[in-house]
Amino acid sequence: MIEKKIKINKHNYLSNRVIVSPMCQYSSIDGSPSDWHYKHLSNLILSGASMLIIESTAVSKVGRITKKDLCLYNSTQEKNFKKLIKFLKSIKDIPICLQISHSGRKGSCNIPWVKSGRPLNKNGWKTISSSNLKRDKSWPSPIKANIQDIKRIISEFEKTSVRALRAGFDGVEIHMAHGYLIHQFLSPICNKRKDNYGGSLKNRIRLSLEITNKIKNKILNSKILGVRLTGLDHVKKGINIEESIYLAKKLKSIGVNYLCISSGGIVKKTRLNTKKQAFRLEIVKKIKKELKKMVIGTTGNLENLELLKKNLYSKYLDLAFIGRPFLKNSQWLYEALGAKVIPKQYEKAFDKKIN
Ligand SMILES: Cc1cc2nc3c(=O)[nH]c(=O)nc-3n(C[C@H](O)[C@H](O)[C@H](O)COP(=O)(O)O)c2cc1C
User: Fold this and answer.
1) Residue 355 in domain
2) DSSP secondary structure string for all residues of 160-207
3) For residue range 43-82, what is the model confidence (pLDDT) as tens digits?
4) Is the pLDDT of residue 239 over 60?
5) Does some domain include residue 66?
């Protein structure tokens, strides 16, 4: 079942069910891809996955997580992304999407190998969020976004999508999970607003729907629109499954082509146990049960091929978004898909006989 192709929209098929999950590299040069990205992504494009989602890319300077994030808000960055996509497509022509994001109160952070999860003390920037609640005791307070800020943020997402398509991407994935800005509006844990963007579920999801609508209007039907959605906050009074099902249905009605269900990240400590195999499977099953016709995947410890085959065969999982296994061994999928995905130039290495 891993190898079964799937229609993602009227114009795009994926040749199998494994997708490269977006993974931040904190290695950009002024927001543009660096040599590291060429090396890293050319490994991943040959991995056998049917689609590549490029790491979380900021829609504005304030929306970066760290100073080394990829960004797509100016023409130099657009030009450099265009070069990268041309290069990757010349190696292998599979759909490549860009994950677009705003970090909100999780921005102005050190890069992980300098000080993991710690705010920049020097030369940081003032972050913005749904409320002025801090991410954590030791973090500074963000500014609470006013209506002008919200309008600007929606337009930044829209402009970045347009730039991504002009640069040659096959689509975009909107990041609505992991405690970043859109999630900061969705979650009652962090959204304490009293206006149209806070309080009731309808108000908390307003920003996510406005952004999705704007992008959908700009995206041609031939392009892919995905969302990384949070299924659960895993904390008391956080987003629950009924709420995420409600939002998922709304996103489907706008014309989103696929959902990748993630969870957690709105605060540091949650009940999410990331040690378990396929730890989000139960969440995705509940969502898929209510949205049978939508293409839905999940992410998190899906490395066990037998388990993956079994679950991709069930009616509850369409796609597997794989991250770390591909970093450890970019040929990880060759075992499952063999000749279908091994590049011709490498075939000899996998032949039994040597001649
Ligand atoms: C180095 C690294 C960077 C990541 N960056 C992102 C990111 O940019 N956007 C995102 O949504 N998830 C990000 N993630 C989460 C992965 O996409 C994936 O969902 C997670 O690692 C679980 O899948 P896995 O068990 O297959 O690694 C990152 C994970 C890793 C290990």
Assistant:
1) no
2) HHHHHHHTT-SEEEEEE-TT-HHHHHH-TTT----STTSSSHHHHTHH
3) 999 999 999 999 999 999 999 999 999 999 999 999 999 9
4) yes
5) yes
How far, in Å, CA of 342 to CA of 47, rounded? 8
Q: Which of 19, 72, 174, 324 to mutate to test the pocket of ligand 1 (most atoms within 8 A of CB)?
A: 324
The pLDDT value recorded for residue 353 is 60
182: domain CATH number is 3.20.20.70
* 55 close to ligand 1 (CB < 6 Angstrom): yes
Picking from 161, 301, 172, the residue whose alpha carbon sits closest to that of residue 225 is 172
For residue 123, being part of any structural domain is answered with yes
Q: pLDDT value at position 255?
A: 97
Q: What is the pLDDT of residue 96?
A: 98
Report CA Rg, the chain.
20
Determine whether the shortest distance from the Cβ of 80 to ligand 1 is under 6 A.
no
Q: Is the pTM of this model over 0.85?
A: yes
- What pLDDT score does 354 carry? 58
DSSP assignment letter at 119: B
Residue with tokens 């190696």: 91
Q: Is 230 in the pocket of ligand 1 (CB under 6 A)?
A: no
Q: Is residue 38 predicted with pLDDT exceeding 90? A: yes
- 99 CB under 6 A from ligand 1? yes
The reported pLDDT for the residue numbered 64 is: 98
Main-chain phi, psi angles of 285, to 5 degrees: -60, -45
- The DSSP line for 20-70 is EPP------BTTB--HHHHHHHHHHHTSS-SEEEEEEEESSSTT-SSTT-E
The range of the structural domain enclosing residue 332 comes to: 6-350
- Answer yes or no: is 1 within a domain: no
Model pLDDT, residue 248:
98
| Tally of structural domains, the chain | 1
Q: What is the pLDDT of residue 201?
A: 98
Exposure on the CB side of residue 176, measured as CA atoms within 13 A: 31
The residues, any chain, with a CB within 8 Å of residue 122's CB and separated by 6 or more, are: none
